UniProtKB/TrEMBL annotation:
UniProt superkingdom: Bacteria
Species the sequence originates in: Candidatus Yonathbacteria bacterium RIFCSPHIGHO2_02_FULL_44_14
Lineage, highest ranks first: Bacteria, Candidatus Yonathiibacteriota
Name used for this protein in its record: Type 4 fimbrial biogenesis protein PilX N-terminal domain-containing protein
């Protein structure tokens, strides 16, 4: 006696396994995408911290130089005595590499309050890379003090 198999249920196991694999792949891709974005975000904040630290360092050096002009000290290889003399009404800019970043400090003397304004702009790359402007991932952070 010959029995016939039910052809209506054929391929159901294959269909279910393809659906489960598709759902697992979609979840895996979502987790991968989220992890990748978190790594990019963490890298950006690390670069922003380098730029902020450079700006803070430059600001502190310039303030110390301005408040102690007779002191003989160096600020990251730049001898303070070689810094430009700031005249009232003529701002001066100093650039220097600090800890893997660059800082540009502008010092301005005024006749009225605020008597001194110091702007420090820190970057996450060297000063030569800032000048060339070819790096699309340059991060800039700035600080300003008036006294």
């Amino acid at each position: 006696m010959i029995t016939k198999t039910n052809t209506a249920n054929r391929g159901v196991a294959l269909l279910i396994s393809v659906l489960v694999a598709s759902v697992a792949l979609a979840v895996g891709m979502g987790v991968y995408n989220r992890t990748y974005k978190e790594l990019l975000f963490a890298s950006f904040w690390r670069q922003a911290q380098v730029a902020f630290s450079a700006a803070d360092t430059g600001l502190e050096c310039a303030m110390y130089w301005d408040l102690h002009p007779a002191a003989n000290y160096t600020c990251f290889g730049n001898i303070a005595a070689s810094w430009p003399i700031v005249v009232v009404g003529t701002p001066q800019t100093i650039s220097m590499d600090v800890y893997g970043g660059c800082v540009r400090v502008e010092i301005a003397k005024n006749a009225a309050y605020p008597f001194t304004t110091i702007n420090a702009r820190g970057y996450n790359v060297s000063c030569s890379a800032v000048t060339s402007g070819t790096n699309p991932r340059i991060v800039e952070r700035g600080l300003r003090v008036d006294y």
